[in-house]
Amino acid sequence: xxxxxxxxxxxxxxxxxxxxxxxxxxxxxxxxxxxxxxxxxxxxxxxxxxxxxxxxxxxxxxxxxxxxxxxxxxxxxxxxxxxxxxxxxxxxxxxxxxxxxxxxxxxxxxxxxxxxxxxxxxxxxxxxxxxxxxxxxxxxxxxxxxxxxxxxxxxxxxxxxxxxxxxxxxxxxxxxxxxxxxxxxxxxxxxxxxxxxxxxxxxxxxxxxxxxxxxxx
Length: 217
Known about the structure:
mainly alpha
């Protein structure tokens, strides 16, 4: 997955972002720092240091840390969209193969430090859902966008292979998202992606059985 920006050491002065790129740099810095240490523990000063911009530049673009968080949630959706849309499995003809390929794609991401593969909006909403409705709503929109993007292939799979009457495309997409978010939490408890890979492997096995492909993952 993408390389995480690291905060500068105490002996390094933050590099100033090129003119015009400060907003994007701040959003990228929010993504990396919040994924690593959480929303509450991440300060505006630290985000500025990672982004290589001044605090004045921060407040030129964002009225508050909350405002940055909302923009970063929106940016997270746009950052992920091309990565998922351009993945090779999207070129497969069979919709079930595309769905299983998507799960394999997510499985392949589960490697390295937790902050490199965990979800920015999933991390942030766990902390801020009760204290900031703006952040909660922005995270909901980002997570829902993922589910909506996955739903057409699921619906095509249901149409081709059949499914129990209570299985809907959006419901199964939300289940996929729920398993992924839960897998990220489990990985944090052990600081090891192995438990997350096992959970997502079970998800793939479930999808195969649901659509009559057998239980082998």
